[in-house]
Amino acid sequence: MNHQSSYKAPRSERTSSTGSSYTTRSHRNKKKNPYTRTSWKDNPVLRNLIFFVLPFLVINGLIFFFAVYTPKVELDIGDTTDYKSVDVTVRVHSLLPLKNSSITLDSAPLEMERDGQTYTATLTANGVVEVTAESINGMSRTVFEHVMVLDDTAPTVDEDYTLNSNFLTITVSDSLSGVNYDELYGRDEDGERVEPTSIDQETGTVVFPMSGNTITVHIEDFVGNAAEPSYSIRIEGLEEDAEENEEDSAENSEDEEDDSESTRSTTAARETTRSTTAARETTRSTTAARETTRSTTAARETTRSTTAARETTRSTTAARETTAASTTAASTTAASTTAAPSTSASTTAASTTQAQGPGVSSTTASQAAEPISPDSSGQTDTIIPLD
């Protein structure tokens, strides 16, 4: 039988050809990779995201979470067995330490027993249980619940009952702890105890015997709340007179109340009328004051208009006087200017005639005496012929 061994010599003992092949492979593996790999640290966007943005978001998120975190409160009202007391359990769940906590019943503090974050108390009265828990960050939570499981009211008696000279039949009930029929009895007008003749616990019907005219029934529940209604048999004659007196007194009181109400209504109506009249007078006074103000304003406007008209008249008169003065000055200047050349011409002609003597012709004299009209400068030139 031929056995083949699985032994292989170490690489150092293998042939050179085998060694050369491994050397070639290692040489090939040592070739440089043309695709250079870059680290994530060389990417500025990724680096900023990891080292700045993410820490900023995480830190601010934690700060916001703890700043607005509100503790959770669980309020559990247990079941009562005796209708006298009930256990209340409060559980507070908070990641932060509590700064303050309070439990009240109708605004009155309750004594609580603490076990970690669980509080327990025993209630002996109905009301509103309010629990408030506040953590160190200032955030608080309040829960409340109405407790109505305790029996703190007396049994009730139906208004429909039967009463005669022999028996009294009533119906009693209690919705919480129930009526304690063992403590159900009556007392007559002499204070003697009277036991009921029959009791139907399913319907609550109780029958008492009547040994007198009045009986007081004692009804109690299992908690101890009791009621004691009284029943009396009417006696003809005396009770009728008493009822009539009561009716008369009731009618008189009603009449008095009606009269007082009428008097109050009349007084109120008078006060209302006076208030209305005063309001009207006030309105009239206000209207008159407004009219006076308007008249005063109109008078002021009229005065202003009159003053303006006077100023306008004065301005017109002054303008007219100025125009007249200018016209007069112009006329005076023109007259003086015309008279001056004429006088100068006459004087020149006369002197010329005297100088020439009688032998000079009149033509020459007239030519010599003819004046020249003044030039634009206002001066007059006279021409004198030379011999």
Summarize the structure.
With 387 residues, the protein is of the alpha+beta class.
Keywords:
387 residues, alpha+beta, Immunoglobulin-like, 5-stranded antiparallel beta sheet, 4 helices, 43% helix
For the record, what CATH class of the domain at 156-239 applies? Mainly Beta
- Tell how many strands the DSSP assignment holds: 18
Percentage of β-strand residues? 15-25%
Major sheet summary line? 5 strands, antiparallel
Q: Alpha-carbon distance between the termini?
A: 195 Å
CATH structural fold name of the domain at 156-239 = Immunoglobulin-like
Can you walk through the features of this model?
- With 387 residues, the protein is α+β, with helices and mostly antiparallel strands.
- Among the domains are: 69-147, Immunoglobulins (Immunoglobulin-like, Sandwich), CATH 2.60.40.10; 156-239, Immunoglobulin-like (Sandwich), CATH 2.60.40.
- The protein contains four helices and 18 strands.
- The protein has helices spanning 16-29, 44-68, 238-356, 362-369, and strands at residues 72-77, 86-93, 98-105, 108-109, 113-115, 118-123, 127-135, 140-147, 156-157, 162-163, 167-173, 185-188, 193-194, 198-200, 205-209, 214-220, 226-227, 230-232.
- The strands form four sheets. Strands 9, 10, 11, 14 and 15 form a five-stranded antiparallel β-sheet that branches.
- It starts with 15 loop residues before the first helix and ends in an 18-residue tail after the last helix.
What is this structure's SSE topology?
Layout: H1 16-29, H2 44-68, E1 72-77, E2 86-93, E3 98-105, E4 108-109, E5 113-115, E6 118-123, E7 127-135, E8 140-147, E9 156-157, E10 162-163, E11 167-173, E12 185-188, E13 193-194, E14 198-200, E15 205-209, E16 214-220, E17 226-227, E18 230-232, H3 238-356, H4 362-369
Helix pairs in contact: 3-4
Biased composition (Polar residues): 354-367, 374-387
Biased composition (Acidic residues): 239-260
Transmembrane segments: 49-69
